[in-house]
Structures are given as structure tokens and as C-alpha cells.
Please model this.
Amino acid sequence: MIGDGKLPDKVTVYEVGPRDGLQNEARPIATADKVAFIDALSAAGLPYIEITSFVNPKWIPQLADASQVAGSIQRRAGVGYSCLVPNRRGLDSALASGMTEIAVFLSASETHNKRNINKTIADTLTAFDDVIPPALEAGVRVRAYVSTVFGCPYEGKVDPARVVALAAELRRRGCYQISLGDTIGVANPLQVQHVLEQVLTVAGRDDLALHFHDTRGTALANVLMGVSMGITTVDSAVGGLGGCPYAPGAAGNLATEDLVYMLHGMGIATGVDLDKLVACSSKVGTLLGHELSSKYLKAALGAQTRAGRTAGQTGQTG
Model:
């Protein structure tokens, strides 16, 4: 077995589809449909859902209704709802909308950080002074995303030492968890092992999450390496929604259905109802007007279609 040979009994699935997924879609979705989508994800048993981003609508018009969405969803007991916050103005809006968890973000590579945030990494960390301390003072938990951990579309390989330094700094600043992102989907399991071995010298297993894109089809293999090393939080997006506007060619996130199917098949609990998840994906795919990339979703919908045809044929008496 890879890693230390042990698999966890449970993995926490951190759903990012309503934010990381929908922000990259060309077709806008009505606020009421977003709210229904998030409520359906809650009902499917997702323990954490990133619902939106309080960013200037000029940059991400798809999420211009952040306050309305945050104020309209049905908040279920036991479900954590989070949002992305780029600056103090975004934090103020998030707090006014009743958010109890936020996320900040930066890249491990300078070029991607400048393209994505229009700041150097050092300037981004300085800007966090306006967000992280006041959020913590307000009793709000802060999560951090580090993008391009395993490779940059502009710089190529990223030195793991950069990731280690950022992880240590973000923990020092009070971020309860750091999500390590394979933004362009270039990672392989041995690379994941190598990076995690180094990051785990400055952060605990519970302090880390994994966030893989499936551009080259290695996301599930990378997850398997991560969970075998004791990482028990994995980000994913229903249907495989997502991408990165500043990472040319990047495919969507690891599909939540594919992740849950694999984990359940290995005896690892998630608390997620796979059938309800498929219904969520099917609905959002219809709203977006295109097929979603999840392999399990395609298989499940195909099986439903075949079952319907068989039932129809059986019912034809002639």
C-alpha cells in the first residue's frame, strides 16, 4: 500500500462547486437556482460547502449575487458554509451576510499570483493583515488556498520549499486549514507524496486539505496517495465543475461523485448520499446547458436511461 499503509475511516468532502465551479461558467444562473443548488447539496450530506465569493463583480460577474445567495440558503445544522474573500471590503460583506467561515487565497508561484490577484506573493500576505485578524476577532474561521502547488502554467515546476514556507506562514497567521491546489492538473502520486512529506514538517495532517483538478486524469490517484498519508479533507466540485481563467487548458475540479464513489468502495465513509449527489449534478448540468465531466455521473445517468428503455420495452404488449 502507498503512504503509511493505513486508510482513514472517514474523509471530509469539501464541496467547492457553487463557487469554484460556477465562477467559470459562461451561462449565468439565476440566484434562486443557485440557492436551490446549494440547498440540494446540503440535503445530500455534504459537510462543507463553499457557496460563493465576495469579490468585485467586475472580476467575477457570475458571483455578483453573493450577498443574496448567502442570505437565502437554508443553513442546515452540522453543515459548514464558507465563501472566498479577497480583501477587507469582501470580508465586511461576508460578515454582514452571516458567514462564519471564509477563505483567503494566493499562489505558490509569483507569475500566477500576479496574473490571478495582480499582486506579488509578499504583497498578498501583507494584504491578508486586513482580512485574517479581523475575521478571527469576529469569531470567523479562516481557511487558505494555495494554488499552483504542483506546477504553474507560466513557470513550470514549483519548488516545494515555497509551499512549505507559505504553509508555515498561513498557520502562523491563524488559518485553521490550508488547501494545497493542483490548479492545472499536472500532479502525480509520487509528487504528491514528496510535497506532503515536506509540508507535514510544518503543519499537521488535520491542518491540510487537497484540491486537485483532473486535467490529465490523475486526480483520484493523487487523492489516494494523500489519504493514505493521513490527509482526511479533500476538495471537489459536483459534476467536475470548474477550471481556472488564469491557467490555460486547466480542466475542472475533481468530481465529487467520482471521489465519493471511490471512497465508499474502499470502505471510507463520507456521509454523502451518492444518489442525491447525482440528482444535484444532473439538475445543474441542465441549468448550465452542457454535459458535466464526472465519470460516475455519466455512468449513473446512462444506467437510468437504459433502465427506462427496458421498462418501456417491457410495457409494450403490442
Remarks:
- The CA atoms of residues 188 and 218 lie 6 Å apart.
- The radius of gyration is 19 Å.
- Residues 295-314 form the longest helix (20 residues).
